Amino acid sequence: MLEVVGYVIPFGVGVALSPLPIIAVLLLVMAPVGARGGVLFLVARLLSFAVLTAAFAWASDLIDDAASSTTPAAVLRLVVGAGLVLWAVVKWHRRPRGDAEPKLPGWMSSIDGMSAGAAFRLGFVMTAVNPKEIAFAAGAGLTVGGAMLGAGEMVIVGAVFVVIACAGIAVPVVAVLVGGERMGPVLAESRAWLVRNNPIVLAIVLLVLGAVLIGSGLSGLA
Fold first, then answer.
1. DSSP letter for each residue of 145-185
2. Which pLDDT score, from 0 to 100, does residue 62 have?
3. What is the spatial distance between Cα 126 and Cα 107, in angstroms, rounded to a whole number?
4. Scanning 33, 109, 134, 207, which has its CA 20 to 30 A from the CA of 123?
């Protein structure tokens, strides 16, 4: 089981370092809805990742049982990994040059007026219907499902992934809950850095996770 935990940790770290969700939660905790909105955003992410990871783990296990082989799931990991590497290349190519400002989604301008319920919905949308987050959850879920673990072990490994994946969101939320308004300047500076370096950070994360999935897929074919 510990070996599988080692395989899923990079996926969790990759999600935790994804810039856009962190930028969104930083905007939320500095908006009128404050820490309450950040907590609900975090809860939505936790629930969404738990469901996605379980679904992909179940699908991987089902595919292996139907084929009486681990090969189909290994090929699927290779395909997802190759897709992430290609995505990383595209992101790197589209990174801003010189003093050009990276483009952020237009919906971010509406965060300042969001209610707590809207913050929860935003957390769900940014996870459950986001191709990048789904790809990361697929990588972790397929890895867990293809490892031939017992049900209890699968739950533990999946929980490790989900907790690590949501750590990047949890840090600013906890900081605001503990430090209150004193954390404002630090959070604003962090947000500015992430906005500026969003494409580069995301490209690196996608490349690393794609390589991990390709390696896992090749191991499954060996």
1. HTTT--HHHHHHHHHHHHHHHTHHHHHHHHHHHHHGGGGHH
2. 73
3. 11
4. 207
